[in-house]
Amino acid sequence: MFTVINLADGVDMRPLELGDAKELAAAYSRNRDHLAPWEPARSDEFFTEAGQSADLTSKLASSAAGSGYSLGLFDGTTIVGRFNLSGIVRGPFQNAGLGYWVDAEYAGKGLATAAVQAIVRVARDDLGLHRVEASTLLHNHGSQRVLRKAGFEHIGMAPSYLRIAGTWQDHNLYQVILHR
């Protein structure tokens, strides 16, 4: 399953733990302006250690239930990105959703692509999923490139799909089929 995966020289991806809350709060705080256009509006509490501890507690419960996994990108002990494989549905669907971000200082260096490719391999080989889906804002060309490089195909556009930056916004939808 998910263990430590080396993505680049000195940058690893691993499951987040409750003890990562302080560093995760620092990463979100450091990237607050960078992430604001791409994420839901966040309360000030979200950017604190307590806020991240609460979020991680929820994500760890999902992991224990097999319904989601929250992973961090680490440069040493510094968190430089977060990837969530969530909403895992078993039965005939065998599907999960993927969301992610990379620190402003590390964006454009291939880390997101390498991480998404690694997650897709684990989803297929270890989790036995059939499909992983992701969505991007229409103007998020960087994320669209990452998804295409990782084998995702564009499958449509969903109007008013998610409330991002305080506004319901249209999203492009992507999927990768893991077993044909």
UniProtKB/TrEMBL annotation:
Membrane-spanning intervals of the chain: none
Positions of the N-acetyltransferase domain: 11-174
GO MF terms held by the record: protein-N-terminal-alanine acetyltransferase activity
Superkingdom, natural source: Bacteria
SUPFAM superfamilies: Acyl-CoA N-acyltransferases (Nat)
Gene3D superfamilies, per database record: 3.40.630.30
Keywords annotated in UniProt: Acyltransferase, Ribonucleoprotein, Ribosomal protein, Transferase
Entry keyword Transferase: yes
Alphabetical list of InterPro entries matching this protein: Acyl_CoA_acyltransferase (IPR016181), GNAT_dom (IPR000182), N-acetyltransferase (IPR051531)
Gene Ontology CC: one annotated term: ribosome
Family under the similarity heading: Belongs to the acetyltransferase family. RimJ subfamily.
Name by which UniProt lists this protein: [SSU ribosomal protein S5P]-alanine acetyltransferase
